[in-house]
Amino acid sequence: MSQQPDFATFVAESYPTLLRRAFLLVGDHGHAEDLVQTALTTAYPRWRRIREPHAYLRKVMVRTAIGWRRRRWSGEVPTANLPEVAGGLDEIDERMTTESVRRALLALPPPQRAVVVLRYFDGCSEAEIAAALGCSPGTVKSRSSRALAALRADGLLSEAGRVR
Amino acid sequence: MTGREAFPNDERRLQDLLGLAASSVSPAPAEAVAAVAVARRRAHRRRAVRLSGVLTAVAVAAAATGVAVSSGAPAGGRTVRAPSFALTGALHSFGGCSAYLRYVRSRAERLVGPYGLSGPDFSSPLDSNSLRFPPNAAAGFRAPLPYGNVDQHSAGSAAAPVTHSGTTDQVAGVDEPDTVKTDGHVVVTLTGPSLRVLDTGARVLGTLQLPGDTSGGMLLDGHRIVVLSATAQSQPGVEAAGPWPGMRTSTPFSAPVAAPARAAIVDISDPRRPRLLRTFVFSGSLMGVRSVNGEVRLVVGASAPRITFQTPQTAGNARTATRENRRLVRHSGLAQWLPRWQIKSPDGSSTAWRPLSSCSDIARPLNPIGLTTISVFSLSPGATAPSAAATSVAAGNVVYATPNHVYLAGVTSGQMSDGPRTRIYDFDTAQQRPVFLGAGWVPGALLNSYAMDESGGYLRVASTVTGSRGRPHSRISVLRLSGRVLAHVGSIGGVGRNEQIRAVRFIGDLAFVVTYRSFDPMYVIDLRDATRPRVVGRLRQPGFSEFLYPLSAERLVGVGVEIRRNEPAALLVSTYDVSDPSAPRRLAATPLARGYAAGAGGYDPHAFLSWPADHLVVVALPADPGYGPAGRRRGAVAYRVGGDGSLTALVTLAHGGVAPTRTLVVGGRLWAVTGTGVITASLGNLRGSTVWRPY
What we know:
The structure holds 2 protein chains of 2 kinds.
Chain A: H1 7-26, H2 29-43, H3 53-71, H4 89-107, H5 110-121, H6 126-133, H7 137-154
Helix pairs in contact in A: 1-2, 1-3, 2-3, 3-5, 3-6, 5-7, 6-7
Chain B: H1 9-22, H2 29-52, H3 57-72, E1 91-93, H4 97-111, H5 154-158, E2 180-182, E3 186-191, E4 194-199, E5 204-209, E6 218-221, E7 224-228, E8 261-267, E9 275-282, E10 285-292, E11 295-302, H6 312-315, H7 318-330, E12 340-344, E13 354-355, E14 363-365, E15 373-379, E16 390-393, E17 398-401, E18 405-412, E19 421-428, E20 435-443, E21 452-455, E22 458-466, E23 472-482, E24 485-495, E25 500-507, E26 510-516, E27 519-526, E28 534-542, E29 544-550, E30 555-564, E31 567-577, E32 585-594, E33 608-611, E34 616-619, E35 636-641, E36 647-653, E37 662-666, E38 669-673, E39 677-682, E40 691-694
Helix pairs in contact in B: 2-3, 3-4, 4-7
């Protein structure tokens, strides 16, 4: 606990990762910032008691994101968000990829999305995911396979050559 | 942790895809600092609330983000599922005043600190007190008019104007503000606050001392002159220009706080008695001004709300100041945010402020970050109100205009790791009321407005891109408006590796791009196939041009810097034969003004004059003291360009060590304008006929 970085140092180092994870979880830049901010606000008062800051923030973020979706955003269909601007061919490609990933993720139920993000973005093990979500490893497994099936059906994973 | 190899193929692909999508988010370090501050603040507040037992921590956490969240959900229209993904809809409007207000409040609340929306060195830009005229300024020009105030000049103007030139503009038919203007009837000069009306014989007819900032130059339209306040300077490759919507930084208010935008209307129907009619004042800074057929188009960027923020000094301590400032932002009203305008009369009275555009018309980019708006509107010199403005949450400081479009470009720190990129906004100004058309972006940063060119429905843009390991190269992008997006049509990158763009000129379907590190490669890029621009020619020589001017389809004049022993040695004037784009040739080069060192802004095109009728080019020195001790030829030098491209210096125009900064042709004489007078010389006998006329 004593070797744990202080709050500001931790945030300075991991903010980009947190924000990226949040973006994948909520699919919107502004909401992602809000999600990170909420998680940090939750963590700050109890910082010295948190043993695993990364695991703790993962947990707060996925749970908050799932809760947000249920509580407030159920009426919103975020696919109306369209990419903002176009640029060079590379950038368009990148933008389109980003956009299709975002859309595919948002089409998943939030608990499945959380599993996908933790597993394939954060590289968490099933046990870690289960701990973050507060469910059993079996649930993680089934959510994960359902999510993959949905993403395959979406065509996201068959777009070969998109990613460099 | 699960390794990459542990996954089958499609799961690896998913990993890649998530990584790529996530990399579109790349916050600046300062954001993390801001997030820490907000977490601390909210935690303290939450603790207080929890102690009062009103709400659970979770509910408060939700409430703490509630403002931003609800503003993120737009008011209607978004619940329709987009039929399929398409690159359209770059921006949409806020769809209502309350949505706009929610947006700016929530964004500002997140950014506000003990000094308001910036650091302690921030000077409040829109204090209306600072807009007041100096008390005595008005008295000087309100003396009775002995000649009557109208139609004194109209008899004269019925006569045909004398042959004349303007100073050099980028686009034919699109006039740029400058310090000297003529219409062949009169010549008007602007030196600091002094506006002088001269007849075509260089005699001063009338003088007017203008109040306020006049450094934006002026435009002349018949009997009316529009004098402008300073425009924000473009700073290539520098992010000082401020709060772009995509700029990921916690200090989005470090934009240069120029004087509030002003346009003073002066009547010279009696040239002996120029009169200030009225001054339009706009909340924000002037980003650029152009004039087409007498219709003045202004681009104004509004950077901060009209809120008088607390500071630690006024509030007692930083925490109180921040709390108070957040409250001020939360309770701010539309009137404090909307761009607006008013008229100041010379007698000191002023009209009420009116909005430039209604808040329901403000375009909103997806995920806008900044709080600045850009308004494009037109102003007839005779009108008493500007047109309704096209406004967007946007930022930019490089303005390029054609007769029917205004383009605004602003560099942003990219969200990817590929360095800055430039956003470009396209406004249609063909009608009296401008309309926002769309936006797009190109990688890298633009040099100046000459880096943009519209031709045949395409916008071509030259940018310097920061490549891997910070190594620059140049790129030409071709964009076309598609829906509301300036969509990418074609591009060529990797031009001039490790070199910065120093000059760009688009001529027809060719782009001439001068880059520089130690040599001057001038690249010729063929744009006939918009989807596949290609480099067709290249010329290498020591030094570099900062400005290129087409004398004809085959001839270019370059004004630039001569390099000797890796040091800038002189201002250099060159001619080029570009009749064969694949083999550009330098025909002649002659140094001028030894000791000239390239200024930050490059050579000012307004200091260059081409008078084809007499095969003359005249090169004045930039007004800034960027060049060293007086060179051998300090002054404006007139050259005759021979049929073979040779340059023959005919005369150096200077008086008493004062170098003119502008030259033009008025009625058979070459004029060189200085701050204290005018030198003229007959075009037929330049050397033997110079006359000095002090003001």
